[in-house]
Amino acid sequence: MSQSRIQHLIEHYTTDEGRLSCAHAHAIAAKTQTSPQEVGDLAREMDVRISACDLGQFGHQPLGTFREDVYDNLKGIADDEGRIYCKNARLLARRSNLKTVRTALLEGGLDIVHCELGCFTEKRRSRWYIKTKTWIENQKGELLFGKGKTEILDEIRTHGQVEAAADALGMDHNRAWEHIRILQKNIEDPLVEGDESLDLTTKAEVLLAAWRQLEQEVKEFTDRRFKELVLKERGSKSRKTTEKSEETERQSA
């Protein structure tokens, strides 16, 4: 496909304000069997601005209902900082649609990097995470059960000795035994049994299983509420900032 054909299509779809929508740019790439990057580069050479990003990174695009499954799919292809390549997000959108992906990105606080049209290669906004720590206290505020005590029980199950379990955790032997004594005193049941080789009692196994379930449910709840209350608001503010910036540009043009 000749460059003149691509130029003709860019001119055809460009608005009077000199803008070419992201959707039209991708349509031109598909129609001319060329790369979106080439269309984006040629548009910039023609002094045409790409507008209305399909993934909501700039310009105002309508949002839909936040879908947890779409958000989870996006998280699955995101890096450790919550960033996703533009191409990968668009491929995922084929399984739902661009609107649901756009909504999940913005309301879930995820970022897009390496725009296929070359509009940006890196996003600067930092990724936010929610961290939780759970433990059980008595009425005096004394720690009864938490990460340290669950770890020592897990290691006793693996090594069969409190001392070996403590070594695996880099914990002082006396400190490890103190964990066991505190647990058994408050639970009023033995948690380890045996002589030369120790094992966990049924009570200890039940306690550990309940603790793991509690930890998981607390994490799931806080993750969900964090997305609903914090990341959704953050995405909303980001969109308002973008719209305000574009309005300022229109007024100064």
Keywords:
single chain; 253 residues; mainly alpha; Arc Repressor Mutant, subunit A; two-stranded parallel sheet
Mean pLDDT: 85
How large is the radius of gyration?
A: 28 Å
Largest sheet: 2 strands, parallel
Task: Tell me the domain tally.
Answer: 3
CATH classification, class level of the largest domain:
Mainly Alpha
Please tally the helical runs, counting DSSP H or I stretches of 4 or more residues. Answer: 10
Shape: elongated
Ends: how far apart? Answer: 34 Å
Structure summary, number of beta strands: 8
CATH topology of the largest domain: Arc Repressor Mutant, subunit A
Classified in CATH, the superfamily of the largest domain is: Winged helix-like DNA-binding domain superfamily/Winged helix DNA-binding domain
Helix content: 55-70%
Strand content: 5-15%
**What is the N-to-C succession of helices and strands?**
HEHHEHEHHEEEHHHEEH
Task: Report on this structure.
By secondary structure, the chain is mainly alpha-helical. It folds into 3 domains: 3-51; 60-127, no CATH class; 129-253, Orthogonal Bundle (Arc Repressor Mutant, subunit A). It has helices spanning 3-13, 22-32, 36-45, 68-76, 86-93, 98-107, 147-159, 162-169, 173-187, 202-252, and strands at residues 19-21, 49-51, 83-85, 111-113, 136-137, 143-145, 192-193, 199-200. The strands form 4 sheets. The protein has a two-stranded parallel sheet. Strands 3-4 form a two-stranded parallel ribbon. A hairpin with a 5-residue loop joins strand 5 (136-137) and strand 6. Helix 1 packs antiparallel against helix 2 and helix 5 crosses helix 6. The two termini are 34 Å apart.
